[in-house]
Description:
The protein is mainly beta. Helices cover 6% and strands 36% of the residues. It has 2 helices and 14 strands; from the N terminus they run ββαββββββββαββββ. The chain has helices spanning 37-40, 123-128, and strands spanning 19-21, 26-30, 46-52, 56-58, 63-68, 75-80, 85-90, 102-104, 111-112, 117-121, 135-139, 149-150, 154-156, 162-165.
Amino acid sequence: MFSFFKKKQAPAEESKPFVVKAYLSGKVVPIEEVKDEVFSSKALGDGLAIEPEENVIVAPCDATVSVLMEGSRHAVGLTLANGVEILIHEGIDTVNMEGDGFEYFVKEGDKVSAGDKLLSFDPEKIKAHGYEKTCILVVTNGDDYPDMKLHTGMDAVQGETVIAEF
Length: 166
């Protein structure tokens, strides 16, 4: 009857999505456009790729380094605070370079913050070997996150542009 005597309820707190920012600057493309069937077919999971403008890959958010490819140093696996597992893979077929032109800045088990350096690569060496420098991000446990949103078709700025939300 007299609703102004009733205690007002606080608005429900909106849960903010967990965001992943660009690990490199460059054009963000859908994973289906990657020129490697293992990735473009989503055999390892859904994701996206960046055509890089620089050569140092940074952590896209706070995470734990869960996997390193010690022999080739071309990829790094991260486990995010919300349980999402991502693989950042530099280049197409660059595993064949056996680490030539790649350098890690982290070790397995390291806790990293958004923007921390993960690995560097030499784009000229990748080109000299006849490979592409497309850098792929795969969400390896994406089936556990049906509300995942991947943002492609844009130019991203490293450490600033949101490329995925969970």
